[in-house]
Amino acid sequence: MFTRQITRLTIGIAALAFFTVVLFFSEPVSSAGRGDKSAPTAPANLVVTAVTETSISLAWNPSTDNSGKFSYKLRITNLNNSAYNSLATISQTQTTHTATFLNSNSAYSFSVFAVDGSGNRSLDSNVANASTLKDSTPPSTPVLQAAVLGPSQVQLTWTKSTDNIPNHCCSYSINMNGSKYTQHINWVAAPPDKLSATIRHLPPGSTNSFSISVSDWSGGNVATSNTATATTHPSNDRTPPSVPTSLRILADNSCDDEVWLGWNEASDDTDGQNAIEYEIYVNGVLSPLPISAGIDFDFVYANPAGESIFTVKAVDRSGNTSAASSAVKMRAPC
Questions:
Q1: What is the pLDDT of residue 221?
Q2: Could you tell me which of 208, 264, 268 has the C-alpha nearest to residue 238?
Q3: What's the CATH class of domain 44-131?
């Protein structure tokens, strides 16, 4: 009996000590602390206040919460393509937001809810729907200059365009004498704010007019530059250079599609070897890379998949072109 009383006394003392520790060392439970189970009130009256080609602005009535601290989450749903759905986090102090970088001419729906510091989530607001405007603004108009390089070439240089929608600009095309021109165009280096291309194989002594058309990528809006006129130098030379010989592959960078070709230089009855240019063709198509004169090697990009057949032609200053060299072949490097 005495032993049983001692055991009960020991258990009682241990229990008293446990509750004393709990009483003095436990964190107090408050409605705003870890024990907060109260969600903020739902934001109300979500409305669309402004729309552009790439943005939609919204406003709503604020939420309240017993903790006094919460943030908003705005659900942005692209009704045309769910891959563009997103969730924006907005400060408690804001009851307006502008969703940016949206697709033009696209339908969206929006809803907003509040989340407090304990993770309690309010109900969603009402849903607001809106569509971005169709992009109807063309890129800025290029300013074009033309420089005559000799009897058969003109270099065109124009200012780069900008567009009202970032990263949606630009595609350029060259017009000659009122029609789109796609033959014998080679891109050349230009200042950072400009683009430049050489138009080759023009008739000696001919007058031609040029313009640049630029289009954006979202609405197909087009702007056309001023017209620049150029008259090539006259020439009586009608004899093409000799055919380049011994075309060969000097080196290719594995998996990079860049191939270095070498050949024996051609000769011409009028122009020296330093004036003869060399056109490289890949599977019968002229490479758009810059063309150099007085060289016996250059690089070109191969067909990344399948076989590449390379040939080279020599061109004199008057635009007379030799027959194609013998061909060399190469399979895709990787």
A1: 93
A2: 268
A3: mainly beta
